[in-house]
């Protein structure tokens, strides 16, 4: 199978990846630029940060949607509901007049992102053989990244009329939904044998690997915890807290710090670039699009590189790239050299490129380091990312309103540096753990 996938890389593509790319246009393209512009221009950076935080608060419900999909078997319905929630939240956003209304609509968008992104990953890890995961996830993220680059280009064109941009984003969810349902798995998990189905019935919440041999060495296949929403979430948190001294827990701390630094930059990106470097939203969106476009080509190679040198090493590379980018941006803001309007965006370019190795290898390494099953480990990783996004949105808004956007850059660089320093001894511990049997 691996040889076949290597010879025919496009065999890992599925039609629904194209529809998923439409969501990338909006979620990582137009909305991150236009949403803070609308709220920031009408109120201020603190209020803009609050509304952006609502977007990520909604995404904290990802474990709930994962449990709901597994419990009901309605993966396609939940996946489609995500597009509809996004369409409503985006379409009504320009009509809102108060921070509360914007907050509710941003929260609705976050719920849509959580539903669709969670089930998209489940379509692969619950319905495809483990040997196909890396390449399929790589291609899925590549399509999402292509959508992001296109969305940022669209945002550059529409930043003078952000309300129309949000309406256009809402309209894109219709073709996204129609194409996004093509070829998606129907019903409950496919490819389970009779023995696996019986075991799944006896032990709800446990994933069944493709065969008995791989089960000993491969963690379970779900991306998020199974079971009822309340008990599953509580039990998952309890197991994590009981294992706080493990390499996995330390990795979650490193991940939280790196993600905090990353999202401090992203959450109010157009406002930050305008205030610190004097670069308008149109130009800054173009730079973001270029960086994201380069990053698209790094998703699949990041998975391959992780197989060769280890996922921990790839996470370290991505973290170092992020620190170099944000550190340079902070240094430029401090020294204010000639050509700041050019140097600032150029320093930023590396940050979206670094996202590719971080998210691909980070997901795989989390599953390897954890003593929990894979679904629980990755579920906590996703929740940690969302938690960092929420904290960064609140923090960026408050810091910018009180101390200026320079302070946002300094805090982002400090968080990334601390995360990277903690990652160095962890990589050695993780390598030792990965080489041990069982």
Automatic annotation (TrEMBL):
Pfam families: MFS_1 (PF07690)
Gene3D superfamilies: MFS general substrate transporter like domains
InterPro entries reported in the protein's UniProt record: MFS, MFS_dom, MFS_trans_sf
Domain Major facilitator superfamily (MFS) profile: 1-431
UniProt GO molecular function: transmembrane transporter activity
Transmembrane regions listed in the UniProt entry: 20-39, 45-65, 77-96, 102-125, 137-157, 163-182, 248-266, 286-306, 313-335, 347-367, 379-401, 407-426
Keywords tagged on the record: Membrane, Transmembrane, Transmembrane helix
Stated name of the protein: Major facilitator superfamily (MFS) profile domain-containing protein
Organism the protein comes from: Halochromatium glycolicum
């Amino acid at each position: 199978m691996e040889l076949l996938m290597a010879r025919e890389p496009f065999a890992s593509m599925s039609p629904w990846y194209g529809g998923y790319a439409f969501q990338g246009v909006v979620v990582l393209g137009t909305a991150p630029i236009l949403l803070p512009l609308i709220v920031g221009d009408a109120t201020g950076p603190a209020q803009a940060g609050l509304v952006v935080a609502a977007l990520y608060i909604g995404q904290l419900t990802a474990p709930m949607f994962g449990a709901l999909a597994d419990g009901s078997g309605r993966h396609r319905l939940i996946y489609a509901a995500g597009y509809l929630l996004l369409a409503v939240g985006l379409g009504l956003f320009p009509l809102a007049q108060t921070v509360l209304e914007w907050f509710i609509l941003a929260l609705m968008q976050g719920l849509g992102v959580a539903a669709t992104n969670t089930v998209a990953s489940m379509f692969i890890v619950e319905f495809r053989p483990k040997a196909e995961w890396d390449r399929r996830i790589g291609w899925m993220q590549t399509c999402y990244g292509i959508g992001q680059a296109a969305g940022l280009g669209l945002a550059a064109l529409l930043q003078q009329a952000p309300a129309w941009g949000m309406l256009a984003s809402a309209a894109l969810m219709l073709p996204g939904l129609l194409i996004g349902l093509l070829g998606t798995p129907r019903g409950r998990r496919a490819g389970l044998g009779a023995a696996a189905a019986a075991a799944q019935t006896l032990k709800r919440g446990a994933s069944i690997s493709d065969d008995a041999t791989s089960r000993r060495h491969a963690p379970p296949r779900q991306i998020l915890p199974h079971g009822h929403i309340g008990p599953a979430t509580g039990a998952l948190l309890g197991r994590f807290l009981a294992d706080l001294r493990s390499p996995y827990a330390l990795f979650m701390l490193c991940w939280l710090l790196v993600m905090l630094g990353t999202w401090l930059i992203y959450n109010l990106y157009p406002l930050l670039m305008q205030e610190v470097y004097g670069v308008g939203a149109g130009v800054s969106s173009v730079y973001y699009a270029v960086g994201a476009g380069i990053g698209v080509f790094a998703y699949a190679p990041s998975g391959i590189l992780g197989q060769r040198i280890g996922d921990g090493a790839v996470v370290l590379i991505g973290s170092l790239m992020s620190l170099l980018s944000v550190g340079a941006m902070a240094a430029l803001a401090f020294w204010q050299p000639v050509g700041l309007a050019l140097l600032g965006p150029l320093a930023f370019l590396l940050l979206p490129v670094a996202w590719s190795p971080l998210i691909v290898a980070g997901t795989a390494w989390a599953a390897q380091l954890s003593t929990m099953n894979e679904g629980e480990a990755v579920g906590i990783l996703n929740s940690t990312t969302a938690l960092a996004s929420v904290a960064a949105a609140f923090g960026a808004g408050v810091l910018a309103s009180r101390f200026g956007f320079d302070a946002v850059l300094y805090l982002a660089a400090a968080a990334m540096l601390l995360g990277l320093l903690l990652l160095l001894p962890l990589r050695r511990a993780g390598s030792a753990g990965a080489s041990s049997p069982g």
